[in-house]
DNA sequence: TCTGGGGTCCTAGGACCC
DNA sequence: TCTGGGGTCCTAGGACCC
């Protein structure tokens, strides 16, 4: 297999705003300028998101517990963060980046890759890209009321990120094509994306500390050590072989809400009430984004910090609060919480990228409260008949099938609409059922006896692109 | 007064299907 | 007829990133 080759010229730019959250606070509150500022969780179990450079002098770092930060730097300002302000500053910067090139990949509020090759630029000499980077930095300062960013430009994402890190804060670094390997060889293995504490420890045990050490291992050895995907990626990255593209639009794969409590919780009813609250927040976000998902996950962190997840997958996607909360509550029953719960979370994944009807519709009347009881009285027809042979994928066209009265065939990830047509009502839907309710699935919904006049039952299966 | 919250990706085992 | 192998889906956990 051909190794992933970096680009021939430094066309990938990485920007990283310096101590972003803390810098926004210092910008907006002059009294904090020049002083240690720590943004993060301020409660008993909080951790540091960002420390200003003044606070870093005292050894305060991101991801450190706030308790430890307070002991290292008691006189710092501890703030819980104003995310609207951060988002606003971030938007201003991202918009500058999009002026630079249409191909921008935000990694977070304060970080992004830009593919300069997708812009109108043609001069990718060191002087040429340095000028682009300097103009960008000036623009950032102006657009954000004085924030600084560090910029790296190189032939790959990996090297651009290494470069932006190199002379923070307010840095600018270009890695000329061909000099990548000599730059990273003396560095610690942890500069490689994907090498965190666990991998670093495994490598340390076999005597690997630097990128150069890593080069001495064969691909097979690496795969044996850290697994297939990780090993292969490490083998190439330590040689600065990286051709990952800048990807502008990434579709969300999951949405979740979680909370850590200052003291462990035991009361079951309280836990259930919290689950309801999180289900509400999650589904509100789903609905806002016009998403729905099939897999509901409950996350529980116990008093001993052990973390457990329980999940369940529905036949069709949902964005309904009641469904998510009912299922998440049921999952809670599978976890022994008697020792106390430190964190609780609810998530939805397996997202479908199409609009979810949020109500069970009968005769055009929205009848949310009737969703369950009537359904359970109906003689359910097995929808799972569709099974594996009639699966479809997102974006595929509408599928359409007709069967005899009372017959319905099944659902996959789409939705099934069932129409009963009668002689008196020339063509058109008499009833439309949206078979997207997990309470009904995988069985549904069709009661021929309820429609004695029906001459025909027509079903349509909607793939995502139809809706 | 140890260890956030929001994500992504990977692995491994079992079920199930052909 | 005592025995296969590949593919997909699901679940749980873990590593990692910002």
UniProtKB/TrEMBL annotation:
Keywords: Cytoplasm, DNA damage, DNA repair, DNA replication, DNA-binding, DNA-directed DNA polymerase, Magnesium, Metal-binding, Mutator protein, Nucleotidyltransferase, Transferase. Residues 448-467 are annotated as: Disordered. Mg(2+) binds at residues 16, 110. The record marks 21 as: Substrate discrimination. It holds the Pfam family IMS. It catalyses: DNA(n) + a 2'-deoxyribonucleoside 5'-triphosphate = DNA(n+1) + diphosphate. One of its GO terms (biological process) is DNA repair. InterPro entries: DNA/RNA_pol_sf, DNA_pol_Y-fam_lit_finger_sf, DNA_pol_Y-fam_little_finger, DNA_polymerase-Y, DNApol_IV, IMS_HHH_1, Rev_trsase/Diguanyl_cyclase, UmuC. Residues 12-196 form the UmuC domain. SUPFAM superfamilies: DNA/RNA polymerases, Lesion bypass DNA polymerase (Y-family), little finger domain. It comes from the Bacteria. Monomer. Poorly processive, error-prone DNA polymerase involved in untargeted mutagenesis. Copies undamaged DNA at stalled replication forks, which arise in vivo from mismatched or misaligned primer ends. These misaligned primers can be extended by PolIV. Exhibits no 3'-5' exonuclease (proofreading) activity. May be involved in translesional synthesis, in conjunction with the beta clamp from PolIII. This is DNA polymerase IV. It comes from Nocardioides iriomotensis.
């Amino acid at each position: 297999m051909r190794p992933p080759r970096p680009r021939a010229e430094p066309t990938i730019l990485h920007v990283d705003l310096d101590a972003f959250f803390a810098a926004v606070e210092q910008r907006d509150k002059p009294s904090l300028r020049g002083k240690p500022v720590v943004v993060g969780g301020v409660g008993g179990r909080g951790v540091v998101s960002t420390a200003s450079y003044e606070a870093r002098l005292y050894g305060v770092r991101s991801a450190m517990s706030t308790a430890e930060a307070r002991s290292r730097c008691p006189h710092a300002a501890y703030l819980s963060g104003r995310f609207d302000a951060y988002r606003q500053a971030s938007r201003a910067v991202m918009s500058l980046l999009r002026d630079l090139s249409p191909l921008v990949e935000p990694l977070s509020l304060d970080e992004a890759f830009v593919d300069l090759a997708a812009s109108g630029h043609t001069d990718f000499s060191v002087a040429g890209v340095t000028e682009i980077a300097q103009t960008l930095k000036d623009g950032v300062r102006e657009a954000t009321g004085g924030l600084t960013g560090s910029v790296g430009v190189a032939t790959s994402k990996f090297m651009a990120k290494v470069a932006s890190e190199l002379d923070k804060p307010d840095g600018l670094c270009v890695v000329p094509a061909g000099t990548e390997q000599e730059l990273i060889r003396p560095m610690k293995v942890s500069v490689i994306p994907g090498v965190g504490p666990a991998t670093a420890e495994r490598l340390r045990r076999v005597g690997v500390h630097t990128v150069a050490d890593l080069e001495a291992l064969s691909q097979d050895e690496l795969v044996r050590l850290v697994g297939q995907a990780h090993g292969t990626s490490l083998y190439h990255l330590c040689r600065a072989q990286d051709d990952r593209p800048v990807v502008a639009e990434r579709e969300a794969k999951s949405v979740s809400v979680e909370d850590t409590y200052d003291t462990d919780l035991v009361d079951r009813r309280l836990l259930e009430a919290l689950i309801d609250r999180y289900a509400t927040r999650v589904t509100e976000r789903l609905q806002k984004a016009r998403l729905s998902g099939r897999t509901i996950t409950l996350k529980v962190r116990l008093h001993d910090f052990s973390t457990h997840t329980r999940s369940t997958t529905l036949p069709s996607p949902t964005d309904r609060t009641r469904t998510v909360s009912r299922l998440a509550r049921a999952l809670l029953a599978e976890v022994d919480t008697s020792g106390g719960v430190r964190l609780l979370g609810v998530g939805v994944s397996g997202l479908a990228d199409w609009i979810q009807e949020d109500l069970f519709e009968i005769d055009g009347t929205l009848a949310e409260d009737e969703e369950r009881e009537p359904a359970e009285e109906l003689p359910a027809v097995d929808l799972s008949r569709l099974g594996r042979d009639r699966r479809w994928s997102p974006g595929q066209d509408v599928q359409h099938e007709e069967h005899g009265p009372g017959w319905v065939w099944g659902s996959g990830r789409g939705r099934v609409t069932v129409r009963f047509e009668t002689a008196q009502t020339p063509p058109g839907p008499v009833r439309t059922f949206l078979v997207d309710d997990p309470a009904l699935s995988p069985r549904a919904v069709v009661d021929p006896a309820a429609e004695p006049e029906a001459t025909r039952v027509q079903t349509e299966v909607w793939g995502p692109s139809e809706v």
